[in-house]
Amino acid sequence: MDHRNRLLRMRGFVIRYRTSIQDLFLVVVAVLVTALTMYEVDVFVAPGTKPIEHTIELDEMPLIGDALTLGLLIFAWRRLQEQKRESRRRIAAEQLARDLALQDPLTGLANRRRFTEVLGTLSPPRRAPTASMRY
């Protein structure tokens, strides 16, 4: 049963974060394709020298780093957009819940909670009676 629960939790994790997993997978693939290209082809060949294939030279490493940086920047930008979308959705849901809590669902009129809230803002706050006023 423990194995089944673990699989269900893993499945839930993958479903919840599927876009992030896909984006990270694309970043990894882009970096690997860049590295493979650098390995197969000598990109920076000095004039008059023979190209050295099947090695990643030191001068080709920044290109791999650039591919990784660009991929991670795109990944971060997409996560930011996703967070903004989620925040807007939650704010709208909270506003809807507040509106529903302050209205009668049948008539659409303000309910008792809304009435007391508005009444509290319109009337001045009540002061507690002092000892001299009691007698």
How would you describe this structure in keywords?
single chain; 135 residues; mainly alpha
Which percent band covers the strand fraction? under 5%
Radius of gyration: 31 Å
Biggest sheet, open or closed, and with what strands and sense? Answer: none
> Using DSSP, what is the number of strands?
0
Question: Unreliable segments (pLDDT under 50, ≥5 consecutive)?
Answer: none
Structural class label: mainly alpha
Distance between the termini: 73 Å
Helix-strand topology string: HHHHH
Average pLDDT, all residues: 87
Shape type? elongated
Helix content: 55-70%
The helix count comes to 5
Structure overview:
The protein is mainly alpha-helical. It has a domain at 2-88. It has five helices and no strands. It has helices at 2-16, 18-40, 61-101, 112-122, 131-134. Helix 2 (18-40) packs antiparallel against helix 3. The N and C termini lie far apart (73 Å).
Topology, element by element:
Blueprint: H1 2-16, H2 18-40, H3 61-101, H4 112-122, H5 131-134
Summarize the structure.
The protein contains five helices and no strands. The protein has helices at residues 2-16, 18-40, 61-101, 112-122, 131-134.
